[in-house]
Structure formats: C-alpha cells, structure tokens
Amino acid sequence: MSAAMDWDDLPDVLPESAPHPLDGQEERSRLRLALRDGRVIEGAYNPIAGQHFLHCTGPGLPLIGQVEGPLRADEIATVEVVMTRGEIRERARELLQGPRVPGREPVTRDDFEHRLRTLARAVAAVPEAEWQMQIRLKRQFDACAERISLAPGKRTWMLAEARWARRSNAPPTMADLWVEPVASASCFARPRPQAFDPDPAVRRRRVPLPPEVRADPFSVPNMLGALVGAGLKARITRLGDPPYQRGHIQVEMPVKGRAHFLLQGALGEDGRMRWLSLWGGNDSKAGQKRYRKAIATPAYGAMVRILREGRRLIQTDLFLRPA
C-alpha cells in the first residue's frame, strides 16, 4: 500500500462522528460526571467552540475553581444533571430575595399596583432587628418595580406609605412621609395610577392638569411658563402633592457666581396661590455684593413683575368644564 492516498480513493461522504454524551445538555447547568478513570467531577457545564468543559468549584479546589476539559466522549461513563439552569437561577433568586411573598404574578396595571403594595407592606412589617430579611424583601419589591420601570422616587413613596399605614389609618400627606411638604420628584413622588401600567406608552402619557389650575395665572406651571417666556433661566426644583398645589422655582440671575432667587408657591386656604421670593445666595460680603448686582438687573425686574401679575396670556374659556 502506497504511503500517499489517491484522492479518488476517499469516500464522497465522510462518516459522522459518534454523538458526544454532553450534546444537548443545557449551558450553565450543573452536571455530575463519572469518568472511566474512576473520578467523579461536578460543576457548571460550558460548551466552547464545539468543545465540552466543566467548571468545578468546592472544597479542595482553588478559590476561582478549576476547569476540566476539553472532555472527550470516550472519557465519560455517565452523566447526571444535578441542577438545570432554571433551578440554579431560582436558587440564586431565593438567596438574594428570600422566600417569595405569596401572590400571583402581575400582568395588568391593577395587578402590578396590588403586588407592589403587598410587597411594601411585607417590608414594613419586618422588625428593624431582622434587617437581612428586610433587604431580601426589598429586593423582591425592586425586582417587581423594575418590570414596569417604576421610578426610584415613587418606590420610596410606596415604602414610606406602607410604614405610615402601620401607625395611622389616615391618608398620608407628603409632609407626613417626607421631611418637608415639597420634594424633588426624582427623590420622592406619589405614583400616578398609570405608573403601574405594563405598557411604556401609557406610562409616558401626560396627564392633563385640572382646568382651574391651567386657568390660574399664578399656578405653578403658569408661573414657570411666564418666567421662561420672559427669557429668564428658571426651573422647578421641588413640588408638593398634588404637584400643582405647591412648588419651588429657582430663577438664575445674570450675575457671575451663585446668584439666584427661590420662588416658593403654595395654595392658601382661600384657594389662591401665593408666592414668596427668597435670595438663594449666602450672607457673606461677596454674597451681598452679588445680591445688589442681581436686584439691579432687568431680569430681576421681570421676575418681580411676574410675581405680581402672574401669567398674562391665559384664555380661561379654553379650560372651562363642559356644562
């Protein structure tokens, strides 16, 4: 027989290799293999580029584990599935979040609101001494809130409201739950009903303000619109609950350094909005110098005029409720 094989002698179709015992096993599942040399190894299964590896961890192994492989088919005697990938994920979830609080999986808007309120009450019911359980239940709450992208400030409101409900049956105000009757919306805000909707388009939909708020020249949104419309650099820094009944607007002055005024508005008992202007700088010599420069600017004059008159261009008839 010649050393060189003629190409014509090769078969048209090469014989297929025998199936590997690990073919079809789920990646990252935990397997226990009995090898033909008598060893038994257990670890996470990792197929890489058609090769089969097992990442083994446990007593007697390095801290980062040890990789066995590539494992040949003729090396393996038996294969046993210790845990599937789904079971491993569920075990990791239970270690992080503790036993699942009973209740069905949320699907609709009402389901998500009910589930989150249930989890918030569960967090509030755990004594402070059992802080580890509190952390696990809070992770369950956050995992559910993540599914509908509930903002952190709204999560904080729900947890604070659940704590309040354990000592009072009265509906809480923002002052009851927060350090002030106003707060930055990114830190603390009451979730609207649509915030629990699983549809992102519904969650992003704007909710119209009440007609009487839009028609009031001194309401928070109209005051902000008047300030911006006058060319002033203004922004809302804090809002109350409801947000149109109380708010803080910061107005920057065209003066170098820290020079701004804080306009604080609140709805009075007579139903009228009243505004107070406070200097936002300090009382140092430099701060007083910036204050004198600020009140001499046309921007300050425009701000004072708006505080007195509110927003001029209001078409009240557009906002009247239908008869």
Explain what this protein looks like in three dimensions:
It is a single chain. The chain is α+β, with helices and mostly antiparallel strands. It has 3 domains: 30-88, SH3 type barrels (Roll); 99-204, no CATH class; 211-311. The protein is 33% helix and 19% strand. The chain has 10 helices and 9 strands. A 5-stranded antiparallel sheet has the order 4-3-2-1-5. It has a 4-stranded antiparallel sheet with strand order 6-7-8-9, with helices on one face. A hairpin with a 7-residue loop joins strand 7 and strand 8. Helix 2 runs antiparallel to helix 3 and helix 2 crosses helix 4 (152-165). The radius of gyration is 33 Å and the shape is elongated. Residues 317-323 have low confidence and may be disordered.
Give the topology.
Layout: E1 30-35, E2 40-48, E3 51-56, E4 66-68, E5 76-83, H1 85-97, H2 109-125, H3 131-147, H4 152-165, H5 174-177, H6 200-204, H7 211-215, H8 220-229, E6 233-239, E7 246-252, E8 260-267, E9 273-279, H9 285-295, H10 298-309
Antiparallel strand pairs: 1-2, 1-5, 2-3, 3-4, 6-7, 7-8, 8-9
Helices and strands: which structural class? alpha+beta
- Helicity level, as a percent range? 25-40%
- What's the overall geometry? elongated
Q: Taking strands numbered 1, 2, ... along the chain, how are they ordered across the largest sheet?
A: 4-3-2-1-5
What's the quaternary structure here?
single chain
What is the percentage of strand-forming residues?
A: 15-25%
Number of strands: 9
| Count of all domains | 3
What is the count of helical runs?
10
Radius of gyration: 33 Å
Describe the biggest sheet? 5 strands, antiparallel
User: What's the overall average pLDDT, rounded?
Assistant: 90
Low-pLDDT residue spans? 317-323
The helix/strand series, from N terminus to C terminus, equals EEEEEHHHHHHHHEEEEHH
Distance N terminus to C terminus?
106 Å
